[in-house]
Amino acid sequence: MQVPSEVSAVAGDAAVLPCTFTHPHRHYDGPLTAIWRAGEPYAGPQVFRCAAARGSELCQTALSLHGRFRLLGNPRHNDLSLRVERLALADDGRYFCRIEFSGDVHDRYESRHGVWLRVSVRLRRARRCDRDATRPVPAHPPQGLSKLSG
Questions:
Q1: Is 67 helix (H, G, I), strand (E, B) or coil?
Q2: How confident is the model over 111-136, as pLDDT tens digits?
Q3: Residue 62 belongs to a domain
Q4: How many domains does the chain have?
Q5: What 3-state DSSP class applies to 77?
């Protein structure tokens, strides 16, 4: 499994988690399942899962956490790249891709180190203050104004 060590993105935007793989079954056209996990490999919670039937190019989505995860790659072409929409700071963490072959071949491959998704906050530039707002306030009120008693 080939994944980058890190992908950086900004909260509210989308990110792509690349994942490609090789396997010894060159012309495999049997059933397969693509899975993405969060937190830890092998046992972390699944955030995305899709399955392709024998001979099908279409990987039918079975799980997409909050509807924000979408497979960009094609498992039949050794690509499990995943798009994550509407990123939140809570999405920051490590993600692991996995492919499972079933039918005649029972092989499973999963990234051990995963890809770290780093989600940051976009800082907005402060507005320029109005000149009048920065004028010093007089210590004594102008003549004709009385002090408020309180």
A1: helix
A2: 999 999 999 998 777 666 555 554 44
A3: yes
A4: 1
A5: helix
Beta bridge partners of 17: 82
Are 30 and 101 spatial neighbours (Cβ–Cβ below 8 Å)?
Answer: yes
Q: What is the DSSP letter of 145?
A: -
The one-letter code for the residue type at 149 is: S
d(CA 96, CA 110): 7
List the structure tokens of 81. 């790249």
CATH of the domain at 15: 2.60.40.10
> In which domain, by residue range, is 110 found?
6-114
Contact 63, 49 (CB under 8 A): yes
* Domain assignment of residue 77, yes or no: yes
User: Considering only CA atoms, which of 104, 65, 59, 103 is closest in space to residue 81?
Assistant: 59
Contact (CB, 8 A) for 35 and 49: yes
Phi, psi of 60 (to 5 degrees): -75, 120
What predicted TM-score, i.e. pTM, was given to this entire model?
0.78
Confirm whether 106 is domain-assigned: yes
For 47-68, what is each residue's pLDDT tens digit?
A: 999 999 999 999 999 999 999 9
Encode burial over 18-50: b for 16+ CB neighbours within 10 A, e otherwise.
bbebeeeeeebeebbbbbbbbeebeebebbbbb
